[in-house]
Amino acid sequence: MSNKFIEFDRVWLKYNPTADFAIEEVTVDIREHEFVAIVGPSGCGKSTFMKLCTGLRPPSKGTIIVDGRQVAGPLKITGMAFQAPNLLPWRTTLDNVLLPLEIVEPYKSQYREKREQFEDRAMKLIRTVGLAGWENKFPWELSGGMQQRASICRALVHEPKLLMLDEPFGALDAFTREELWCVLRDLHAENPFTVVLVTHDLREATFLADTVYVMSKRPGRIVARREIDLPRPRDIEVTYSEAFSKIVHELREHIGAIRKS
Amino acid sequence: MTKSFVEKHAPALLVIAILLLWELICRGFKVDPFVLPMPSAIWDSLLEFKKPIFDHALQTFWTTMVGFAVAVLVGIILGCLLGSSALVYRACYPLLVGFNSIPKAAFVPILVVWFGIGTTPAIVTAFLISFFPIVVNVATGLATLEPELEDVLRALGASRVEILRKVGLPRSMPFFFASLKVAITLAFVGTVVSEISASNAGIGYLMMSASSSLKTPLMFAGVIVISIMAMAMYEVFAWIEMRMTGWAHRGQQATA
Predict the structure, then answer these.
(1) For chain A, what are the domain ranges?
(2) Interior angle at CA A194, CA A189 and CA A180, nearest 5
(3) What would the 3-class secondary structure string for chain B be?
(4) How far apart (Å, rounded) are the C-alpha atoms in residues A183 and A153?
(5) Which of A91, A140, A147, A198 to mutate to test the interface with B (most CBs of B within 10 A)?
(6) In chain A, whose CA is at the least distance from the CA of B157?
(7) What residues in A contact B252, CB-CB < 8 Å?
(8) Which CATH number is associated with domain A78-160?
(9) What is the dihedral sign for C-alpha A43, A45, A46, A52?
(10) ipTM for the predicted complex
(11) Residues A110-135: pLDDT tens digits?
(12) Nearest Cβ partner for A80 among B155, B245, B251
């Protein structure tokens, strides 16, 4: 599919009138079901990009079109997950995952009558990410990796068209991280949605994404766009291949050039 | 075995030791009972006046509970307003702090002008003294909501009311219940202060009249009854707190 799902047309943003621009002249086209990764040095406006995409912030200049409509106010078709899992400590894992269904229409109004059906759906996701048996535990009884799995379930349970991930694996150990890469890869392959992944891990970006954008340091600009042509499905083995290393190296050079400038 | 017995009952043992010491000092040094009555004399006077003490205690108790209930209601509403809007918070907070720094006893004469002598000024004083910690705690609980969590919900299209209901309020419950423990003891202070100067019923009034008839043991009995009531209510709210917000006391990595 090549129809545009997200279009950024020369978008600028400053958070308040006296501040400098957080991002400058960003023009990006994202196809439906495309997996996009945004990498860059810290403080480069990656998270700003996410806020713009989801309509949590209006741009200062330029236009953003998502799903054929100009963005004005928060979109209701997104799921989000952050570096901190942000689970609600008074809810069980299952209830945490069900939260979006209590808020997003049309699920909200059907919630009472279809509760069982929704629970089945949440349980299916919970099993997919390997949390079966933990659904009735509270967040504090889960390890960091498990909490993050639950957080991803919560981001996907309402079948959003757009998944926004802000360094979701940043706080995890290397093995858990690679495991969750595969979980995310499988979820995306099974039931496609558009993904914007913000990360500073170049291997993560290369392994998961169709297209990687490199942002410069503040004020953030897109300095490079790299299509990852590695064949899918990608196995974790691919990360040790020469082609993979070459791409990572190439991306690294872009970052290096930014840091020196 | 003996060690665990001591450890288990340490608070009660300490109280008994203090009472014994008190009794011994009073007997040993022949302290005038008018100045400091012995615990046994206080006990006697408790038994002797148990009917009036009970009636006055009941009066103080329900006065306090009414004032406290109003404080909880107003505290939650004001706390929600302050906690969910940065502007309201900025505007109201200095005013609230200023108001809170006024000694509430200073209001009693004004309240007497407005409401006359009796139960009403006591209820209002109990309310005035106890609503502040509730407001501040509910507001803090709401205002310290993680911005990411708010983004998650806003990105789902949640309205402000929904965010408040699903996340804000449950999240501020530990703050709220912690403040109830503080507020209930303060409410008793408010009631008694008002009763002392502007009432003809309640423990405060009982102590004033005992004082004017030089019945020191009865005054001490009053102090003991009021402190037992306040302690009991504190324990009740501590228990409710544990029951309602156990999740907040079990693990610290809940939000890690």
Answers:
(1) 33-58+163-261, 78-160
(2) 50
(3) CHHHHHHHCHHHHHHHHHHHHHHHHHHHCCCCCCCCCCHHHHHHHHHHCHHHHHHHHHHHHHHHHHHHHHHHHHHHHHHHHHHHCHHHHHHHHHHHHHHHCCCHHHHHHHHHHHHCCCHHHHHHHHHHHHHHHHHHHHHHHHHCCCHHHHHHHHHCCCCHHHHHHHHHHHHHHHHHHHHHHHHHHHHHHHHHHHHHHHCCCCHHHHHHHHHHCCCHHHHHHHHHHHHHHHHHHHHHHHHHHHHHCCHHHHCCHHHC
(4) 11
(5) A140
(6) A76
(7) 140
(8) 3.40.50.300
(9) positive
(10) 0.72
(11) 888 888 888 888 898 898 888 888 98
(12) B155
Distance, CA of B107 to CA of B118 (rounded, Å):
14
CA angle in degrees (0–180, nearest 5) for B22-B23-B27: 115
Q: Would you say the CATH fold of A78-160 matches that of A33-58+163-261?
A: yes
- The CATH T-level fold of domain A33-58+163-261 is Rossmann fold (3.40.50)
Q: Which residue(s) pair with A215 in the sheet? A: A222
Tokens 């858990």 — which residue? A176
Query: Using an 8 Å Cβ cutoff, are A81 and A129 in contact?
Result: no
Nearest to A90 among B156, B170, B256 (CB): B170
Per residue in B107-125, pLDDT (tens digit) is 999 999 999 988 999 999 9
Residue from the list A89, A100, A104 with its beta carbon closest to the beta carbon of B254: A89
CATH architecture of B37-250: Orthogonal Bundle (1.10)
CB pairs under 8 A between A and B: 81
Distance from CA of A247 to the nearest CA of B (A): 32
Query: Can you tell me which residue has the tokens 């291997």?
Result: A203
Residue B75, min C-alpha distance to chain A (Å): 23
Which three-class secondary structure state does DSSP give residue A15? coil
Give the tens place of pLDDT for each residue, B163-213. 888 888 888 898 999 999 999 999 999 999 999 988 889 999 999 999 999
